[in-house]
Design brief:
By secondary structure, this protein is mainly beta. The chain has one domain. 11% of the residues lie in helices and 41% in strands. The protein contains 6 helices and 21 strands. The strands form 4 sheets. Strands 9, 10, 11, 13, 14, 15, 16, 17, 19, 20 and 21 form an 11-stranded antiparallel beta sheet that branches. The protein has a 4-stranded antiparallel beta sheet with strand order 4-3-6-7, with no helix packed on it. The two termini are 18 Å apart.
Length: 409
């Protein structure tokens, strides 16, 4: 039997009921293209691409590629990303290649840097009910998990999901996640004896919605544990951002803290982006936070645990738009000489805001934070599986990996 390592990226003890419900609409129009840096020509990853006034969105993959679909003809697209000017483009013939122009920082940055980081952060926390949606919403999402052993993919799973979100003044105890459809592809090689399963699937975006869930970073108990400093300002799209660095100011005996960067819109004092990395200086403490179970003789060595949570503003309100978690680790067996490196990457993009009154689904359809997507996903071979959904386009390397895994089966 395969030896199984269960990895949990959930660092909280709370378990949330997860549900949601919505029917997809026919997405008969699409545009595809590539986004590159206007100066270097290199592809730009994780660019937010949306159809204005239609609530359809996606992000570019690591090759800068995207495909976006809509229920009406797409006459314009909006592209935005950290450090670049927002660009609106009219597609031609179902294609729109984009060259994003880096945004220069304004000359008044000295006055921005001199601000008190903690006071700006507290002011942004106070403005959350004003800056973020206060009504329940159902968000349509695309979610992907991949695991690589060294550089070779051994596991790929994808899902269309729904996130039921109460207002940002309500906390996360009633927020839910549920699946519309999902699929999985596993390596058949006998040598891939170590499987990695990540708990929670798309429900990770419920727990790690840092702005809505203060128990990750912004609670009254956690804030005093961190040091905050101002950094050089930056643009996200055409909006100037306060940039605040944070790092642990104290050491907890049983739990690792984080370091990272917080981006806050200068005018609205609204959270735009949060980047977090777990402190791995104490390997034993980090391992206890991450590993639910493993074979006794297997040794786990975490190398990187990081998160990106991005929020987008539309019509004066901000919402969760993108979530990404990365786990890199090595494993070795006692009495064996060499270690094996693994990388687990999870991405979720909010692709649409569902119309109608959002209502939770029955408990029998809920996707729990303890659930594993592999256990629910269908086979990978339906060629029209994503025909009526917005997704994150697979990279060239991922498409190649899918082909190899299929042939192996």
């Amino acid at each position: 039997m395969r030896k199984l390592l269960i990895i949990s990226l959930f660092l909280l003890t709370a378990v949330f009921p997860l549900a949601g419900q919505a029917d997809s609409v026919l997405l008969g129009w699409s545009v595809r293209g590539t986004v590159r840096d206007a100066r270097t020509g290199k592809p730009v990853e994780a660019v937010h691409v949306r159809v204005p006034a239609r609530n359809f969105a996606t992000v570019t993959n690591a090759d800068g590629e995207y495909t976006i679909k809509s229920d009406r003809e797409i006459t314009a697209l909006v592209f935005s990303h950290l450090g670049y000017r927002t660009q609106t483009l009219q597609p031609a013939g179902g294609e729109a290649d984009v060259r994003l122009v880096p945004e220069a920082t304004l000359l008044d940055e000295a006055s921005i840097i001199s601000g008190d980081a903690r006071e700006i952060l507290l002011a942004a926390i106070d403005r959350i009910p004003e800056n973020f949606s206060r009504e329940p919403e159902m968000l349509g999402c695309f979610y992907r998990e991949t695991v690589r052993k060294r550089q070779r993919y051994t596991y790929i799973s994808e899902a269309v999901a729904r996130l039921y979100k109460t207002g940002y003044d309500k906390g996360t105890s009633r927020d839910h996640a549920a699946l519309d459809k999902s699929r999985v592809l596993l390596s058949p090689r006998a040598g891939d004896t170590l499987s990695v399963k990540v708990q929670g699937g798309p429900a990770q975006a419920v727990v790690f919605d840092v702005v809505k869930n203060p128990d990750v970073l912004f609670s009254g108990e956690l804030l005093p544990l961190y040091q905050f400093t101002m950094d050089r300002p930056a643009y996200i799209g055409d909006r100037l951002q306060f940039v605040i660095r944070f790092q642990p100011g104290k050491v907890l005996p049983d739990w690792p803290l984080y370091s990272g960067t917080i981006y806050i819109d200068r005018e609205r004092l609204s959270f735009t982006r949060i980047e977090m990395a777990m402190d791995l200086s104490d390997e034993y403490k980090a391992t206890r936070a991450l590993v639910v179970s493993k074979p006794f003789s297997l040794r786990f060595h975490p190398k990187e645990v990081s998160f990106v949570i991005h929020y987008s503003e539309q019509d004066g309100l901000s919402r969760l738009s993108y979530y990404r978690s990365l786990l890199r680790f090595d494993c070795d067996w006692k009495k064996r000489l060499f270690r094996t490196g693994y990388t687990a990457l999870n991405e979720l993009v909010v692709t649409d805001i569902r119309d109608g009154i959002p209502r939770p689904v029955p408990r029998s359809e809920q996707f729990s934070v303890k659930d594993i997507l592999t256990d629910r996903a269908a086979d990978f071979f339906d060629p029209a599986f994503w025909e009526n959904y917005n997704i994150i386009e697979p990279t060239e390397s991922l498409e190649h990996a899918i082909g190899r895994l299929r042939k192996g089966r």
